[in-house]
């Protein structure tokens, strides 16, 4: 789960992290009122969407010469003008794709006199089961280019969660950022605060870009992105309350209601599989056969007829889907239950695209028998390779 920048900063402030004064706004009037409450005379008006690259982004409705989603305002009037241009319009960034995202919220912050920009982030390193703290002296909008062209300017510090954040980790961060004196001490403190927030909130990712050194010698978090481990959200109802469903894919929201793991992709073969590993293998073999998966959808190990029906509806809600491949290994889940769900769903949604089903495991023969007697145009497959070849052939034939 992702949250907005202003929400992430409010959470970090509870851990003592220094952030510039700022106020969220949903309307032009609220943006103006927010600016009047800030010291000024400089203000920053920031579009709030769940995507990076806002500063370099462009608004679809404003033309190629318009400014991006992060703007420096020198007066209250400019804050008002920028708010009018941003709210309700579609911001396209390198992370949103061409569709972009509509801006429904703004964050008006106090201007900061920046002397230097740095980069700091934390992610879970699944290879080692530890937290990777990534820092660079080259913070700002071009950090992706730094990672690509000059990776030696990026330092990774690995922290064992059983040991926790130790003083030497803070010193390593300050050394990597080439900070001395009081700034060195501040870097040690802020990196510890950020680590504590990362662990306490069950974050999957915490990115500070940029972490800035101000002209008066302080370190402040100027921008931040934060995402959370969805498996741990039950421990954080306060974080769940920050969820903005308008920023999420409607199909993914619907899937979450049925405890389905669904992610939309750019292909044309819809997939319904039980088990994340099997789902990945299914997507790979579809691509191997010359087409691309339209989604990742894991129905889990204990799917019911209701869940399978919901999964079908979600897959078919994507107009790009030209065919569906169901790949189920029945262990805990019985193949006859899956077959019943497939039949019920196909009848309910008036299935109009080719459907190939590969079942294996508990009650597999009963499941195949149910599908064969259903009277529906369901193509049965014997194994995964056979299933992928058949769905590709069926889609090409239908075209």
TrEMBL record:
Substrate binds at residues 274, 331-333. Residues 9-241 form the ATP-grasp domain. It catalyses: succinate + ATP + CoA = succinyl-CoA + ADP + phosphate; GTP + succinate + CoA = succinyl-CoA + GDP + phosphate. InterPro entries: ATP-grasp, ATP-grasp_succ-CoA_synth-type, ATP_grasp_subdomain_1, SUCC_ACL_C, Succ_CoA_ligase-like_bsu, Succinyl-CoA_synth-like. It comes from the Bacteria. Pathway: Carbohydrate metabolism; tricarboxylic acid cycle; succinate from succinyl-CoA (ligase route): step 1/1. Binds 1 Mg(2+) ion per subunit. Keywords: ATP-binding, Ligase, Magnesium, Metal-binding, Nucleotide-binding, Tricarboxylic acid cycle. It is an enzyme of class 6 (ligase). The keyword Iron does not apply. Mg(2+) binds at residues 209, 223. Its EC number is 6.2.1.5. Its cofactor is Mg(2+). ATP binds at residues 46, 53-55, 112, 117. GO terms for molecular function: succinate-CoA ligase (ADP-forming) activity. Succinyl-CoA synthetase functions in the citric acid cycle (TCA), coupling the hydrolysis of succinyl-CoA to the synthesis of either ATP or GTP and thus represents the only step of substrate-level phosphorylation in the TCA. The beta subunit provides nucleotide specificity of the enzyme and binds the substrate succinate, while the binding sites for coenzyme A and phosphate are found in the alpha subunit. Belongs to the succinate/malate CoA ligase beta subunit family. Heterotetramer of two alpha and two beta subunits. This is Succinate--CoA ligase [ADP-forming] subunit beta.
């Amino acid at each position: 789960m992702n949250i907005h920048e202003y929400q992430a900063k409010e959470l970090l402030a509870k851990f003592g992290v220094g952030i510039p004064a700022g106020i969220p706004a949903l309307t032009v009037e609220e943006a103006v009122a927010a600016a009047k409450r800030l010291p000024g005379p400089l203000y920053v008006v920031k579009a709030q969407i769940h995507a990076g690259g806002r500063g370099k982004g462009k608004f679809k409705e404003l033309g190629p010469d318009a400014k991006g989603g992060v703007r420096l305002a020198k007066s209250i009037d400019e804050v008002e003008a920028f708010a009018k241009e941003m709210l309700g319009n579609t911001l396209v960034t390198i992370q949103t794709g061409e569709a972009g995202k509509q801006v429904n919220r703004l964050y008006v912050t106090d201007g900061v006199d920046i002397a230097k920009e740095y980069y700091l982030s934390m992610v879970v390193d699944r290879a080692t089961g530890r937290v990777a703290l990534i820092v660079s002296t080259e913070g700002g909008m071009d950090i992706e280019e730094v990672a690509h062209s000059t990776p030696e300017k990026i330092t990774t510090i690995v922290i064992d969660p059983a040991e926790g954040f130790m003083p030497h980790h803070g010193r390593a961060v300050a050394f990597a950022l080439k900070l001395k004196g009081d700034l060195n001490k501040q870097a040690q403190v802020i990196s510890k605060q950020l680590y504590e927030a990362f662990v306490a909130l069950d974050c999957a990712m915490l990115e500070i870009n940029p972490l800035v050194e101000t002209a008066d010698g302080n370190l402040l978090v100027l921008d931040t992105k934060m995402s959370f481990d969805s498996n741990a959200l039950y421990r954080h109802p306060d974080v769940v309350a920050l969820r903005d469903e308008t920023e999420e894919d409607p199909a993914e929201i619907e899937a979450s209601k049925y405890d389905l793991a669904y992610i939309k992709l750019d292909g044309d073969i819809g997939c319904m599989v039980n088990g994340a590993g099997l789902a990945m293998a299914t997507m790979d073999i579809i691509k191997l056969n010359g087409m691309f998966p339209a989604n990742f959808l894991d129905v889990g190990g204990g799917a019911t007829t209701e869940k399978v029906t919901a999964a079908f509806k979600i897959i078919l809600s994507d107009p790009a889907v030209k065919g569906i491949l169901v790949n189920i290994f029945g262990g805990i889940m019985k193949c006859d239950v899956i077959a019943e769900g497939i039949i019920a769903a196909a009848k309910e949604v008036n299935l109009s695209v080719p459907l190939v089903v590969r079942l294996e495991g508990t009650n597999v023969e009963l499941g195949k028998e149910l599908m064969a007697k259903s009277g529906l145009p369901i193509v049965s497959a014997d194994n995964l390779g056979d299933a992928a070849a058949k769905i590709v052939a069926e889609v090409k034939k239908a075209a």
